[in-house]
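Possible regression after last week's pipeline update?

I re-ran a chain I had predicted before the update to compare outputs. Posting the input and the new output here so someone can diff against the archived version. Not blocking, just want to make sure nothing changed silently.
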Amino acid sequence: MQRLSALFLCAMLAACATGPIPEKPQHLFHDALFSAPSERISPDQIFALSDEMRFYLDNDIARKIHADGKIMALVNVLNKKAQLKLTYDATKTRNAAEAFQARSGNCLSLAIMTAAFARQMGLPIQFHSVTIGEVWDRKDNIDFLIGHVNLTLGETGGSSAFVGQESPKIIDFGAYDGTRGERMEDVGEDIIVAMYMNNRAAESLANGNLDNAYWWARAAIERAPAFLIAYNTLGVIYSGHHNLPEAEQVFQHVLEQEPENGLAMSNEVHVLNGLGRAKESEMLARRLAEIQPYPPYFFFNRGLDAMRTGDYRTARTQFTKEVNRASYNHQFHFWLALADFYLGNIDETRKQLIIAMENSPNSTQHDLYAAKLQSIRSHGVH
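New output (post-update):
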């Protein structure tokens, strides 16, 4: 199983190296292995306002500035359902104009859209990465590391023209409230742009377009050479493209910066095994097990194995362990619901399906779980 470190929903986890990294690691790029991208790989449009956004700013937002001030005028249209009616959608990372047109996006997309408005209004902006442990998602045979971003509108340094006029406001499109031990760290725009590009790389990879994935990951690294997650993404792209020596070179580069980077180590184990270097792979796997004895999806995978053999009681136990350490993951709740269903625990089945529905990353997944819940109800199972 290859594990990809990605910004699939948003944000950054363990993103910046602690040691020096070459500004342009050209030796890690192998352009000749990939075809030209089918889309434009450029940061130019990430924060660009569309005509529709400019009209909304000049009319809906501008009318509120006199009474509310610039910051609260923007905050209010973002927060009130009667205004933009924004919804969360992790299907695709959108630029500012795309997020505004769709009225939806992941936290990174919505933060970018907010920043685009704020910049046009002359408001100071500070992006933040927010971490509270590791958050994972899975698609097919790739595990995605997920983080969270938000931003502050208004000067936070205490020495600007904004002092005495408007208080800074944190804009967050998730569940961050600062009360659960979250760590919020300032990040620059280069990192945000690299996050966006790495997200696009991860999404292209998940959709099977390795050519586009390569060029997006390459661009992310060039934009922010210290952004190690993009290197992991590049390595997984090489691996998926059957360029194992190139993949091994990238993962080694990450491990030179962070010798205990679990993502790079896990990916390196598989690459070394694929290169026929079984002893090296085994040694690294043992080292990884010492650092990370219960990696992401450890109990979930055991639960799936039990489901295949019809051992639903064991499966329920394993899925429960995974839910207890990662309650945000909709897949864990769904499979726990399935195990409960086969055990005849219908009340628990309904409960877990509802939680899976509430944690869905997009409306499509939400509707799928809702349909399964309705199917149970329509067949008279109470």
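Follow-up from reviewer: compared with the archived run. Confidence is low (pLDDT under 50) at residues 1-22, 158-164. Marking as no regression found.
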